[in-house]
Amino acid sequence: MERITSAKNAHVKQVKQLINNAKARRESGLFVVEGRRLCGEARLDLLKEVYISEDCHHTVMAVDDGMNFQVTEEVFSSMSDTKTPQGVLMVLKQPVWPQEGFFRKDGLYLFLETIQDPGNLGTIFRTAEAAGVSGIVMNRECADLFSPKTIRSTMGSIFRMPYLMTEDLFYTMRLARTIGVRLYAADLRGKENYTEADFSTGTAFVIGNEGNGLTPEARSQSDHLIKIPMDGEVDSLNAGVAAAVLLFEAKRQRKA
Questions:
Q1: What pLDDT is recorded for position 231?
Q2: In 3-state terms, what secondary structure has residue 46?
Q3: Is the four-CA dihedral 111, 117, 118, 123 of positive or negative sign?
Q4: What is the CATH number of domain 2-93?
Q5: CA-based max dimension of the chain
Q6: Do domains 2-93 and 108-255 have the same CATH topology?
Q7: N- or C-end of the chain: fewer Cβ atoms within 10 A?
Q8: Domain segments of the chain: what residues?
Q9: Can you give 48-69 as a three-state secondary structure string?
Q10: What pLDDT score does 200 carry?
Q11: How far is 225 from 184, CA to CA, in rounded Å?
Q12: Which pLDDT score is estimated for 50?
């Protein structure tokens, strides 16, 4: 195990870049997870490097010793993205799922159009896993999936939830429809109450930007516009909350 004592070490600089720079993550295909829980849920087939602080004796990583680096407390604190570092972080390859075979005619999917809040995006991933979603499709304008805040918000679901990052969301929507998946857009203009729709067969929910909702093209590419009725003076829900309401209704119908 190599010991690192300087913040100027090349490995330390790379970790800091991956934490702070979206372009570095995108170009390298790597990202960083930190903390005992997330590191414990990480897929070992994606693992590139493990960094352990000198005082973190309770953490034992069952990986090739050549991947392990022991780091002084001072250097580890300079690398960490958290206020109270837990003494372990990993550099991993970004998981990739092939588009071929991604859609099934009986599957449950989410299409996300320009979701911009990292915490919101991460929460949607976590909620989707809990609701039994088959996969998530995002356009490139969505928040960076591999930013530290997004990763923390997924609570490990990033390693298990299949996803596609698409250059053309509308083409991918049409592709899902050819498989037999019906597209339901969550929209204030919807005439159909979400509890009256049938989600028991192949279903995809289309969720739009937090501030502006769905674009006209996203609505036009969908088979149905559905709404979530609200009382009081509230006219919209957080994108993550809306996704949760719809997904768990679909889960309820499928269980029934």
A1: 84
A2: helix
A3: negative
A4: 3.30.1330.30
A5: 63
A6: no
A7: C
A8: 2-93, 108-255
A9: EEEEEECCCCCCCCCCCHHHEE
A10: 96
A11: 6
A12: 94
